[in-house]
């Protein structure tokens, strides 16, 4: 297997991280080597530390290598089978494109956006649970119907294919710019970013509060809310206070999962109770985790899901079914969270 191709895919991972098109282990991407054989990112491995030896090879539907291929490898295989000119496939969970996946139907593009993406519409593939044959079948049918290089996956993310990694990366960034523009046209911006509020980590005597790297003395409301959460949730080691402009739309409300990564990390709802990893009060959101990294990941999916929920409410699109949320959360806790911890 070509060392150059392996190096190319690892570099692509670093670039996509820098572009904020992928985060942690979420999303997956591949490059064709020959015929319908391709290199793909492994399941549950961090892109920051991924090496050339970590990559999996998929040939005739079978994966080989040190680690299992991404569970979405059948989706990549169907692209390479359908488009001989495809040399690279990206499956991203980028924020604004993911939010636009909650539109009611395919999205027509104006001339400027059509030129940026090389197509007249943004097609929407119907929903299927992650890594399932239903999802892959829906993607295949959408590609067969539209022949598009960029499609949105309902409540999930985006799929992009191109001749090579450089073009695929360019398309991914163009998609996010277009999606952010379309988002603003539909729902605007809900609020303004508030002043930074203190986050915290549990200590033997209570909690230590900080803003960025600096330890601070919080206001009394923040202190009381953090200590109340620690008292009720012994599994929580870090709390991040969030005042994101779009999350503000759900202060004092219940926020349901409109994206499946929110269902995986948070559960079937976020509200003022302490039953999930997001607590919504009248004036702030609190993102909970066993450690800072976990709480940060919760914050990322909270902000994405809030944007998706705003589009869902605008378009009249329902959130993910409760039973599917419970299933995804259980699978994530049992499998992927453990992989990511050691990756």
Mean pLDDT: 93
Helix share, percent: 40-55%
The first-to-last residue Cα distance is 24 Å
Quantity of strands, as a count: 16
Discrete helix count:
10
Low-confidence regions: 338-343
Quaternary: single chain
Radius of gyration: 20 Å
Structural class: alpha+beta
Largest sheet: 8 strands, mixed
Question: Helix and strand succession?
Answer: HEEEEHEHEHEEHEEHEEEHEHEEHH
So what's the overall shape? globular
Relative strand content = 15-25%
Summarize this entry quickly.
The protein is an alpha+beta fold. It is 41% helix and 19% strand. An 8-stranded mixed beta sheet has the order 4-3-2-1-5-10-9-8, with helices on both faces. The chain has a 6-stranded antiparallel beta sheet with strand order 13-12-11-14-16-15, with helices on both faces.
Structure, explained:
The chain has 343 residues and is an alpha+beta fold. It contains 10 helices and 16 strands. It has helices at residues 3-18, 73-82, 95-100, 111-117, 133-146, 165-187, 220-232, 260-265, 292-315, 322-342, and strands spanning 28-34, 37-40, 56-59, 62-64, 88-92, 107-108, 121-122, 124-125, 150-153, 157-162, 199-203, 206-211, 214-215, 238-242, 278-280, 285-289. An 8-stranded mixed sheet has the order 4-3-2-1-5-10-9-8, sandwiched between helices. A hairpin with a 3-residue loop joins strand 9 (150-153) and strand 10. The longest helix has 24 residues, at 292-315. The model is unreliable at 338-343 (pLDDT under 50).
